[in-house]
């Protein structure tokens, strides 16, 4: 389980509304690479919850999933 400091750092790095493009997700229900979404929140476990353009809400895990922030 991530520390409180690690969670706060993730929330600062990925604030609500941050646009992200997926590169690769290790999940059987993964959205397709190249899909764009917005961060809805980072939970207390460090999961980055998303609202994808496909309608999916599958979250990301930094260090396991590959993605990039769209500036």
For the record, the CATH class is Mainly Beta
Radius of gyration, Cα only, in angstroms?
A: 11 Å
Oligomer: single chain
* Number of structural domains: 1
Series of secondary-structure elements, N-terminal to C-terminal: HEEEE
The share of residues in extended strands comes to 25-35%
CATH level 3 topology: SH3 type barrels
Contiguous uncertain segments of 5+ residues = none
What's the architecture, going by CATH? Roll
**Overall mean pLDDT score?**
96
Number of strands: 4
Strand count, sense and closure of the main sheet? Answer: 4 strands, antiparallel
Count of individual helical segments: 1
Secondary structural class: alpha+beta
Shape: globular
* N-end to C-end Cα span: 29 Å
* Spatial ordering of strands, largest sheet: 3-2-1-4
Helix content: 10-25%
Write up this protein:
- This protein is α+β, with helices and mostly antiparallel strands and 71 residues long.
- The protein has one domain: SH3 type barrels, CATH 2.30.30.30.
- It is 14% helix and 31% strand.
- It has one helix and four strands.
- The protein has one helix at 4-13, and strands at 19-24, 36-42, 48-52, 66-69.
- Strands 3-2-1-4 form a four-stranded antiparallel sheet.
Can you summarize this structure?
With 71 residues, the protein is of the alpha+beta class. The protein has one helix at residues 4-13; strands at residues 19-24, 36-42, 48-52, 66-69.
Which descriptors apply to this entry?
about 70 residues, alpha+beta, SH3 type barrels, four-stranded antiparallel β-sheet, 4 strands, about 15% helix, globular
